[in-house]
Design goal:
Bound molecules: 2'-deoxycytidine-5'-monophosphate
Distance between the termini: 27 Å
CATH superfamily of the largest domain: P-loop containing nucleotide triphosphate hydrolases
Helix content: 40-55%
Largest sheet: 5 strands, parallel
C-alpha cells in the first residue's frame, strides 16, 4: 500500500488544481477520479445508452475498458485504446457525468480501478467518495470546499479567460444542481468523512491551501526527506 492522500469535495472547490500542485511538491502521482467518470460518460453517450436506465448502463459499461497512463506527470485516460482526455471537459459531459456517476455498476467498476492505482503508488487522489469509500484507510483525508458563489466566480473567470461566453448566474445554478445530485445519490454520496480535515478555500490562495495540506502530511515529508516548501 502506498502513501495515500484522499481529497473530496464539491465541484469547483479547487481539488484538481490543489491536488496537482501538492503531487508535484511531494513527488506523488495525481489521480483524477472525476476524469474516469467522465470517460465512462463519453462512452455511454457514444453508445446512445439511456443514462437513467440502470440496467442498460450496467450492461453496457462492462464494454468500456478504462485505463490510466501518465505522460509527463499528466494523467491520460484511455477508453478502449483511445486517449479521450480532450473530450472530458465539455459542459454536456460535466452535467451528464453527475447522472452517470450515480449508477452503482459504474461506481463499482471504477472503485476497483482506483483501489488498484492507490495500492501501486504513492498518490493524491481526488473525487467525491475517496475518503469514505475508495480509500477509507488513506493516510491523510481532506474535505475541500468553498461557497457556491465563490466556486461559480472561479469557473466564470476560467471560462472568460478561455474566451468562452457564459453567464455567472447560470454557472452557479449548474454548480448547485450538481452538488445536490452528488450529495443526495443513494450510492457513495458526497459527504465529509468523519476523520477528514475540512478546508474551506473561499478566502485562501491556492498556495496557502497546498501548504496547509502539505503540513498535514508532516510525517510523510520527513520520511521522504522533503521540506514541501519549494
Ligand atoms: O471532479 P469532476 O468535476 O471531474 O467530477 C465529475 C463528476 O463525477 C461529478 O458530478 C461527480 C462525479 N464523481 C463522483 O461521483 N465520484 C468521484 N470519485 C469523482 C467524480
Amino acid at each position: 500500500m502506498g502513501f495515500n492522500i484522499a481529497v473530496d469535495g464539491p465541484a469547483g472547490a479547487g481539488k484538481s488544481t490543489i491536488a496537482r500542485l501538492v503531487a508535484g511538491k511531494l513527488g506523488l502521482i495525481y489521480v483524477d477520479t472525476g476524469a474516469m467518470y467522465r470517460a465512462i460518460t463519453v462512452f455511454l453517450l457514444r453508445e446512445k445508452v439511456d443514462l437513467s436506465d440502470e440496467k442498460a448502463v450496467a450492461d453496457k459499461c462492462g464494454e468500456a475498458d478504462i485505463t490510466i497512463r501518465y505522460r509527463e506527470d499528466e494523467q491520460v485516460v484511455i477508453l478502449n485504446g483511445e486517449n479521450v482526455n480532450r473530450l472530458l471537459r465539455t459542459e454536456e459531459v460535466s452535467r451528464l457525468t453527475s447522472v452517470v456517476s450515480a449508477q452503482p455498476a459504474v461506481r463499482e467498476k471504477l472503485r476497483s480501478l482506483q483501489i488498484r492505482l492507490a495500492a501501486e503508488s504513492d498518490c493524491i487522489m481526488d473525487g467525491r467518495d475517496i475518503g469514505t469509500c475508495v480509500l477509507p484507510n488513506a493516510d491523510v483525508k481532506i474535505y475541500l470546499t468553498a461557497s457556491s458563489a465563490v466556486r461559480a466566480k472561479r469557473r466564470y473567470a476560467e471560462q472568460c479567460a478561455r474566451g468562452i461566453a457564459c453567464d455567472l448566474g447560470q454557472i452557479q445554478k449548474d454548480i448547485e444542481e450538481r452538488d445536490y445530485r452528488d450529495m443526495h445519490r443513494e450510492v457513495a454520496p458526497l459527504v465529509q468523512a468523519p476523520d477528514a480535515v475540512l478546508v474551506d478555500t473561499s478566502e485562501m490562495t491556492i498556495e496557502e491551501v497546498a501548504q496547509h495540506i502539505i503540513s498535514l502530511c508532516g510525517g510523510y515529508c520527513k520520511a521522504e526527506g522533503l521540506s514541501g516548501k519549494d
